[in-house]
Design goal:
This protein is of the alpha+beta class. It has 9 helices and 10 strands. It is elongated and about 115 Å long.
């Protein structure tokens, strides 16, 4: 039975790895839209002149700008050639299919091919893209699109540098309004201490699997691993909820919708780790070891290793500090990978225990009467 569970744990872990690798290509395609981390900080400083009911902010670690129009009238975001690009108002959100910005802004790289009908000088042709007066878009004026760092950062990489102050024009009726903001290069952190913390945590948690199962120390170790795995699962849930908040989700409904459409696997693995940790705290059979190994593998793969760039990037897609995101990631990697090590070690040790069989019983001979 133990050997079967051990083989199943290996198969499930391998299947999870294959699934992650299979998802890596489409994830990379959308990685520019919602980066895992960056060294460039985009901030909106305000609207000039101010417009009550019109708000703009940077979302997705600065990869997009979000405009919300509650003024009760239409406003237009102006494209790169001075043409109407977006129209946002009470009737919803529209994009001008004649504007080059409609296509260039679909990715951070701005490498979308322009269709033949693109013509910034032509009258706008509006296409509805949303029912609400809210729009998010990449804007090259607020981003750094070169492959290398700016010259001032290359010359002095030890401190932050202001790359530029940027503006995006908006038309409110006949009046011109400007979205103003800043773009800074921020020195990336040293990833070594974070890697060391995650590695030491993994070794410490995994070493609990060396204690003999069935002993008092082994029972305490099982509960400790379960608690740490549940802590890692809770950290994963906080991390993915934070990513949705940073992406502009508002309210419980908005966060849930974002989680179910864009963060479903990290969310499920976090919740699964919490459940498996609770199971280990409540029970002590070999099934708990199997649950720890399985949930830990999924947590480490889908919520941990998929976000490792947070260790080496200055700006994380997180509404609070990047340091907080790194601490959460350490808990996820150490708890998840450590639970895999502890669970597999305990299953392996259990599979090597000698199988005991009850002593054969022999019928008592019936005495014969002479």
């Amino acid at each position: 039975m133990i050997a079967v569970l051990l083989r199943r744990a290996g198969l499930v872990a391998a299947a999870a790895l294959v699934t992650l690798l299979a998802l890596a290509t489409p994830a990379a395609a959308h990685g520019a839209d919602a980066p895992d981390g960056t060294d460039y900080r985009t901030e909106v400083t305000g609207l000039t002149p101010a417009r009550p009911g019109l708000t703009v902010r940077a979302v997705e670690a600065g990869a997009r700008l979000e405009l919300v129009n509650r003024t009760g009238r239409d406003v237009e975001v102006i494209g790169y050639s001075g043409e109407p690009y977006l129209r946002v108002g009470p009737g919803g959100t529209y994009e001008n299919t004649r504007s080059p910005a409609t296509y260039l802004n679909r990715t951070v790289a701005g490498d979308t091919a322009l269709p033949p009908e693109t013509d910034p000088a032509a009258p706008p042709q509006w296409r509805r893209i949303a029912d609400e007066p809210r729009v998010r878009w990449h804007d090259q004026r607020a981003l750094w699109r070169e492959s290398g760092p700016p010259a001032q950062a290359a010359a002095d990489p030890t401190r932050a540098h202001r790359i530029r102050d940027w503006t995006v024009p908006v038309r409110d009726g006949t009046e011109q309004v400007e979205i103003r903001g800043t773009l800074d290069w921020v020195p990336p952190p040293d990833p070594y201490p974070w890697w060391m913390a995650a590695t030491l945590g993994f070794l410490a948690v995994g070493a609990a699997g060396l204690l003999p199962a069935g002993s008092v120390a082994g029972d305490h170790a099982l509960r400790a691993v379960g608690a740490l795995l549940a802590l890692g699962g809770a950290a994963a849930v906080v991390l993915v909820v934070g990513r949705e908040l940073d992406a502009g989700a508002e309210g419980v409904g908005g966060v849930l919708a974002g989680l179910l459409t864009g963060q479903i696997w990290p969310l499920l693995t976090g919740l699964g780790a919490i459940a498996a940790g609770g199971y280990a705290l409540a029970r002590r059979p070999a099934a708990a070891d199997f649950a720890l190994a399985l949930a830990g593998a999924c947590l480490a793969l889908f919520a941990g290793f998929a976000n490792l760039s947070v260790f080496s990037r200055a700006v994380a897609p997180f509404p609070w500090s990047a340091t907080a995101a790194r601490v959460l990631l350490v808990l996820i990697v150490a708890g998840g990978a450590g639970a895999v090590g502890a669970g597999v070690l305990r299953l392996h040790a259990a599979s090597r225990l000698p199988t005991t069989h009850p002593a054969p019983t022999h019928p008592t001979p019936t005495p014969t009467t002479p």
